[in-house]
Amino acid sequence: MLWSIMSKPLDLNQLAQNIKQWGLELGFQQVGITDTDLRASEPALQAWLDKQYHGEMAWMARHGMMRARPHELLPGTLRVISVRMNYLPANAAFASTLKDPTLGYISRYALGRDYHKLLRSRLKKLGEQIQQYCGSLNFRPFVDSAPILERPLAEKAGLGWTGKHSLILNREAGSFFFLGELLIDLPLPVDQPVEEGCGKCVACMTICPTGAIVEPYTVDARRCISYLTIELEGAIPEAFRPLIGNRIYGCDDCQLICPWNRYSQLTDEADFSPRKALHNPDLLELFSWSEAQFLKVTEGSAIRRIGHLRWLRNVAVALGNAPWSNAVITALESRKGEHPLLDEHIEWAIAQQIEKRNACIIEVQLPKKQRLVRVIEKGLVRDA
């Protein structure tokens, strides 16, 4: 029998309710509880790895099936507390940024402060509160920082279902939220999964600029713009560069087109408010940043981890996709010789600019982007 700090039998059902309330008070929008059994997810994970869909993310393969075995991360773990926190800012400006090729589009989760530290701190506080209540508790918080399958855990804990874009969807909140986990060694009652709500919809699959969602629930990271602009350390494959458009850090298209995001909720966290220098930024201005400027603007931001070189690489591609102008070519020329990786993308971008100049091409948005912008402007997703 388990005992509380007051030397009374521990009511696990009541404790589970307390944990959910404490989680809400800490700023999480939902808290669910599940066990550690992810054996059902192992075959899909292994197949994904076998097909090399993880690209150059070697750590994915290195950790292998450990990702489906939370109890190996913290021996004695019996339950996983799964939480979600909204991150959508009030002034997301999806459409206005996407349809202006002179601006840089940054995935909306990265406009504010790095979420990892904030969520981990709140989860640690939740663990300490449970520990204080019980008198003894082993716990460990995780926020996208360890080999753990957080989305299957969130699904099992009732936070939503896995959409065909592989993200968790929630009927009341769409998908614009972060996930976090707290591993504990208490046999709390578990929550039940919710019914999936995608049906026959394949909007996310058809809107993806690069065709990265190769089948329902399966993303080939090697084709995904988020992977190409964030995880990939080397050259972006030339075939994908025109399709990236003005997306310089991540991509939200599969979320923006999703009908469930008409119910997306705005964040209450001031830390997730967009930084002025990163919100609807001018591409030429971004390309002029020195490394010192980049580090200053991205201090405490998730963007900082890609480094100045890859940042310039991404912006160079976006400039190549921008309307022709002498200013763009001059800016691109000005950074030649800084690094071979950057030079490769600058040369490509200049070639794109010259081709537009010679053909007197008027910038035309790709059909998929045009469709996405129309959908956003009609109010299918919440867009301030």
TrEMBL record:
Annotated positions binding [4Fe-4S] cluster 2: C208, C224, C251, C254
Binding site for cob(II)alamin: R67, D144, T162, I168, L179, S226, C251, D252
Location(s) in or outside the cell: Cytoplasm
Catalysed reactions listed for this entry: epoxyqueuosine(34) in tRNA + AH2 = queuosine(34) in tRNA + A + H2O
GO CC, one annotated term: cytoplasm
Binding positions ([4Fe-4S] cluster 1): C198, C201, C204, C258
Cofactors, names only: [4Fe-4S] cluster; cob(II)alamin
EC number: 1.17.99.6
Subunit structure: Monomer.
Protein task: Catalyzes the conversion of epoxyqueuosine (oQ) to queuosine (Q), which is a hypermodified base found in the wobble positions of tRNA(Asp), tRNA(Asn), tRNA(His) and tRNA(Tyr).
Entry protein name: Epoxyqueuosine reductase
Source organism of this protein record: Salmonella oranienberg
